[in-house]
Amino acid sequence: MGSLRIVLTRPASGAGPLEDGLEQAGLVPAHLPLTRQAPPEDGSRLTEGIDRLAAGECDWLLLTSGNTVRFLLEAGWAGAVPPGTRVGAVGPGTAQALARLTEIDRPWVPALHSAQGILDEFGQAGAANRIFLPQSAQARPLLADGLLSRGWQVVSAPAYKTVPVQGPLPWRPEAEDVVLVTASSAAHEWVRRGLSARAVLAIGEPTARSLRELGAPADAVLAEPTAAGVLAAVESLG
C-alpha cells in the first residue's frame, strides 16, 4: 500500500492529524480543494455571539471545524473564554487548530468525532444553560436541534460559508489515486466536475449520503476521520 496517493478535497491549510497519520503509514497525502471558505454575508449574529461569549453568558463554546476557529478570530474573537466557560472540539483536527491558533490546548473532545458523538455525550441541560455554536452556514441542523431537544439554549451563528472553487483545477486525480471526499459541499463539486479515480472514500455518513443522492456512491465510508479509518477503508476495497 506504500506510496499510494490519497487525494483530499480540502486545502492544505486544513491539514491536521489525518494527513500526519497518512504520511506515517507510508501513504502520500495530496490536497485538491474543490471548495473554499468565505465570510458569511451577514456577520452580525457571529459578532453578537462573540460578545455574549466574552460577557460570560455561555456555559460552552462548541467548535465543529478548524475553519470555525479561523473565522471566529477574523471576526474579533480574542481566542479565550471567561472562567467557567468550557470549550468543546468535535475531533482532534479541530482541537489541533484551536491549540495552534489560540492558547486553548485541552478542549473536551467526544469519543465519536462527529455531531452525533457530541450529542451522545451531552446530557439534559438546566433552564439557563447556554451554548455558543458557530458553524458553517451550510451545516446540517442535527447538532443544534439535538442540543435544543435536550434543553440547552443554543446561540447559533454562521461563521463562514463554503463556496465552489472557480475556474479549472490545477490538476486532476489519476487512475490509481484514492480520493477522500471530505464534506458534502466537496461531494457536489466532485460530481459536477466529472472527476474520477481508482476509489472514492467519504468522511462520515452525511458526505456519503450526498454522494449517493448525486448518483455517485462512495466505494467506502470512513468509520472515523483518521488515518486508521482511511487504511481500513482502503483495505476493504481489496
What does this structure look like?
The protein has about 240 residues and is of the alpha/beta class. The chain has 2 domains: about 5-35 and about 165-235, Rossmann fold; about 45-160, Rossmann fold. The chain contains 9 helices and 10 strands. It has helices spanning about 15-25, 45-55, 65-75, 90-100, 115-120, 140-150, 185-190, 205-215, 225-235; strands spanning about 5-10, 30, 35-40, 60-65, 85-90, 130-135, 155-165, 180, 200-205, 220. Helix 1 packs across helix 9 (about 225-235) and helix 3 (about 65-75) runs parallel beside helix 4. The radius of gyration is 18 Å and the shape is globular. The mean pLDDT is about 95.
Q: What's the total helix number?
A: 9
Low-confidence stretches: none
> Which strands sit side by side, in order, in the main sheet?
2-1-8-9-10
Largest sheet: 5 strands, parallel
Average of the residue pLDDT scores: 93
Radius of gyration: 18 Å
CATH-defined fold name of the largest domain: Rossmann fold
Order of helices and strands: EHEEHEHEHHEHEEHEHEH
Shape: globular
